[in-house]
Design brief:
disordered N terminus, 2 domains, single chain, 269 residues, alpha+beta, globular, Muramoyl-pentapeptide Carboxypeptidase, domain 2, two-stranded antiparallel sheet
Length: 269
C-alpha cells in the first residue's frame, strides 16, 4: 500500500492508473476552458490572446453560448440596428430580428471594445448598424430579391444598381460573414457634435461611391474612411474594398458555422 499526494491510500496499479486518467481528463477540461470551449462565462480580456480559439468549432447553429450583447461590453457607443427598425434596403423588419440589439461573438466584441476605447480618446465612438445576422435573415433577403416589383427603398440604398444584380455584383451574399457572428457594419460618430462623421456615403448605400478607394469624394471624407479602417485593422478586423463600413474579425472563433438563432437577449447564456 502506498500513500498518494491527495492524502488517501491507493491499492495496486489499476487504481493508480485510474487516478492518472482522471487527472489527465481534468487537465484537458481546464485547458478547454482557457481555449474558450467551456460554456462557462469567460473574461473578455482573457479570451483574445494568441491561440485562444484553437480547436473551437461549433456545429450547433442554434447555440448562442459564445455570443454577448454588444452594448453590455461596449456601452459607450451608438446603436441603430436597421434590420430591426425597418430602415434598410428591404424597407421592413427582417426575419430573425426580434429585438433592437447587436449580438457578437465574445472575442470580436472584446476586440471591438478596445478599438472603440481608442476612438473615445479622439472624441469619437462607433455607431453600430449591424452585427450578428441569422441565416433566416439572409434567406429573407434572398426571397425579397426574387420580387422585382418590391423596390420601395431603391432610391435610398441602391439607386445606381439594379435589384436583380445585388447578389451577382457582391453587394449581398447567400452565405454572409455576419451569420458567423464576428462581422460588423459601423461608422464613426462624433461624440461632441452628436452626429455621424461624414464618410462620403451613408452606411449600406450600395454602389461605387461606397468603395473604400472611390476617388470622387473629398479629402476630408477620404481621411475619415482611412481613420476608421486603420483603427479597425489595429484591433484585428479586416475590411473589404466595396463597403467602407464592413469589417470581419480576422481571428473569428466560428469560421465555418452559419448560425440561425434569433436576435434577442434571451438566447444568451
Amino acid at each position: 500500500m502506498e500513500k498518494s499526494r491527495f492524502g488517501f491510500a491507493i491499492k495496486g496499479s489499476f487504481l493508480w492508473g485510474l487516478m492518472l486518467l482522471f487527472a489527465a481528463l481534468f487537465s484537458l477540461r481546464a485547458a478547454a476552458g482557457v481555449l474558450g470551449v467551456s460554456s462557462a462565462p469567460a473574461s473578455l480580456a482573457d479570451s483574445t490572446g494568441p491561440g485562444a480559439f484553437l480547436g473551437r468549432r461549433s456545429t450547433d447553429i442554434y447555440d448562442a453560448g459564445g455570443f454577448v450583447a454588444l452594448p453590455d461590453v461596449m456601452p459607450k457607443a451608438v446603436y441603430e440596428i436597421r434590420n430591426y427598425t425597418g430602415y434598410n434596403f428591404v424597407g421592413r423588419r427582417i426575419d430573425g430580428f426580434e429585438e433592437p440589439i447587436a449580438l457578437l461573438t465574445r472575442e470580436a466584441a472584446a476586440a471591438l471594445k478596445e478599438a472603440n476605447d481608442e476612438l473615445l480618446a479622439m472624441g469619437y465612438c462607433f455607431k453600430i448598424h449591424d452585427a450578428y445576422r441569422p441565416q433566416r435573415a439572409v434567406n429573407d433577403y434572398i426571397a425579397w430579391a426574387q420580387d422585382p416589383d418590391d423596390d420601395r427603398m431603391k432610391e435610398f440604398f441602391y439607386p445606381d444598381v439594379e435589384k436583380g444584380e445585388l447578389f451577382s455584383r457582391g453587394y449581398l451574399a447567400r452565405r454572409s460573414g455576419h451569420t458567423r457572428g464576428s462581422t460588423v457594419d459601423l461608422t464613426l460618430y462624433d461624440v461632441g457634435k452628436k452626429k455621424e462623421v461624414d464618410m462620403g456615403s451613408p452606411v449600406d448605400l450600395m454602389g461605387e461611391i461606397s468603395h473604400y478607394d472611390y476617388a470622387g469624394i473629398t479629402e476630408g471624407q477620404k481621411a475619415n474612411r482611412r481613420l476608421l479602417r486603420e483603427v479597425m485593422e489595429r484591433h484585428g478586423f479586416q475590411p473589404i474594398s466595396t463597403e467602407w463600413w464592413h469589417f470581419r474579425f480576422s481571428n473569428e472563433p466560428y469560421p465555418d458555422t452559419y448560425f440561425n438563432f434569433p436576435v434577442k437577449r434571451s438566447v444568451l447564456r
